[in-house]
Write a structure and sequence with these properties.
It is built from 20 helices and nine strands. With 463 residues, it is of the alpha/beta class. Strands 1-2-3-4-5-6-7-8 form an eight-stranded parallel β-barrel, surrounded by six helices. β1, α5 and β2 form a beta-alpha-beta unit. The structure holds S-adenosylmethionine and iron/sulfur cluster (SF4).
């Protein structure tokens, strides 16, 4: 019934012939062509255990990341709309039986205040996040939410792409969701391991494994071009989860000619009164986590990979280099927490899980720039209809960078002019100048023109 073949995954994990350093070296050599890996090759790399091969794995992943994504890092922030939920996921503070959590659902006015706060920080991309509830996260309310957020305009600054992390919808509702103008539809399987899934989801609509597993098929069939898959690492063996996640990506690619637009790799964080989060059954250590990020990058080079503020700044920095292409910054994970004052709010009583990175957007931008990464606020592809197969075609032919780099530089200049602190500006202006100087020919001329337009006060300049 399912395209996730547990038997085959377990067979690969146990196959001793894949635990061989010569084989792993050959696979790493092949991986540097940036053409991807199959499941068996990925399984072999998951067995890497020696310091020498770890180094090689990380440097190959870095090469591939730079080849496809250059040094760009796309920034976004989550916006939690409601923490009311009918499910009882054992790892989440929003689960219905958690009586210690204060429940809150934002009104449209409150949503506008939250989004305005994010616009004033400099954000251009938002991920709206909902608990599952027939009224508080109905398709009509999701539509009103999205409309309201898109309507905000602060001196030419606005939210230009809204991605949505919401429970699986019917085919008809996915069609409606598309009509609201969302960017990516995101939904994580949490765990692909069936028995673990049934343990972690004791009741509620989420208990239906297949309904969730086929959400992306329904979304793509309903015309949503960009879908984001993910697994919550820590619920079951990380090798199983990584291979299953790749199996899902390959299946989408096989059936629809495009893989997932993004893969997310959240790691379980402590959450109020959530037994599986307080004591993760299969906690993933930092080195194994870095290894699986690098392997996903090599296996699906064209898929964006998202890292959130669940992770600490130190590990975030390490993971950028081996494959991450999108990051959240300045995030909060409870409804209303951006605009409400600290005094009126004890965040822990409302939030979904604890964060590892508490820095502001400005601090993250400064840090990324100091490390040589180019923060990007670009949202051009989706608004220019470069989604789905059109995006993949550009990415696979290696041409996407010619569009992304100018757009990243122009939107970064916009951020610096409008929102950066003096400290960040000082570091970043120099960085930006060097970046532009490193580009030749007509592309450089186009970039200089775009930057001049931004500096003259034009906003939302892109190609
Ligand atoms: N309620 C919807 C659902 O479950 O699909 C929307 C998303 S839920 C609010 C967002 C994601 O947070 C979940 O899919 C899960 O992967 C992640 N999450 C839940 N509890 C977590 C925890 N303790 N640590 C890290 N991530 C967690
Ligand atoms: Fe509800 Fe989603 Fe949390 Fe599960 S993970 S309890 S469905 S908000």
């Amino acid at each position: 019934m399912y395209f996730i073949n547990e038997e085959y995954i377990n067979y690969l994990i146990k196959d001793d012939s894949l635990n061989n350093e010569d084989l792993q070296k050959d696979i790493l050599f092949k991986a540097s062509e940036a053409k991807g890996l199959n499941l068996k090759e990925s399984a072999a790399l998951l067995n890497i255990n020696s310091p020498e091969l770890y180094e090689e794995l990380f440097s190959r992943a870095k090469e591939v990341k730079e080849k496809i994504y250059g040094n760009r890092l796309v920034l976004f922030a989550p916006l939690y709309i409601t923490n009311i939920c009918v499910n009882n996921c054992l790892y989440c503070a929003f689960r219905k039986d958690n009586r210690k959590l204060k429940r809150k659902s934002l009104s449209l006015e409150e949503i506008e205040a939250e989004a305005e706060f994010l616009v004033k920080q400099g954000h251009k991309r938002i991920l709206v996040v909902f608990g599952e509830h027939p009224k508080k996260s109905s398709i009509d309310f999701i539509g009103e939410t999205i409309n309201r957020i898109y309507s905000i305009n602060y001196n030419g600054n606005n939210i230009r792409r809204i991605n949505a992390n919401i429970a699986p919808l019917t085919f008809e509702d996915f069609k409606t969701l598309k009509s609201f103008g969302i960017g990516t539809y995101q939904c994580f399987q949490e765990t692909y391991h069936y028995d673990t899934y049934m343990t972690m989801h004791p009741e509620g609509p989420k208990r239906d494994y297949a309904w969730r597993l086929y959400a992306m098929d329904r979304a793509l069939q309903a015309g949503i071009d960009d879908v984001g898959i993910g697994a919550l690492f820590g619920l079951t063996d990380y090798k199983f989860e990584t291979l299953a996640l790749l199996m899902h990506a390959f299946d989408l690619d096989f059936k629809y000619g495009i893989g997932p637009h993004t893969i997310s790799i959240p790691r379980l964080e402590p959450a109020l009164n959530a037994p599986a989060a307080i004591n993760p059954p299969h906690a993933v250590d930092d080195l194994s986590f870095k290894k699986l990020v690098a392997i996903i990058r090599l296996a699906v080079p064209y898929t964006g990979m998202i890292l959130t503020t669940r992770e600490r700044p130190e590990i975030r920095r390490e993971l950028f280099s081996v494959g991450i292409s999108q990051i959240s910054a300045g995030s909060r994970t409870s409804p209303g927490s951006y605009s409400e004052s600290k005094e009126s709010l004890d965040e822990r009583e409302l939030q979904q899980f604890q964060l590892g990175d508490h820095r502001s957007l400005d601090e993250v931008v400064r840090d990324c720039t100091s490390l040589g990464y180019l923060p990007s606020f670009c949202t051009a592809c989706y608004r220019s209809n470069r989604t789905g197969d059109r995006f993949m075609e550009l990415a696979k032919s290696g041409n996407i960078g010619k569009i992304c780099t100018p757009n990243a530089l122009a939107t970064f200049q916009e951020y610096l002019n409008d929102f950066a602190t003096v400290e960040t500006k000082t570091i970043a202006e120099n960085f930006l100048k060097n970046e532009i100087e490193g580009i030749n020919g007509t592309t450089r001329k186009k970039i200089e023109k775009m930057i001049t337009q931004v500096n003259a006060g034009e906003r939302d300049v892109y190609m």
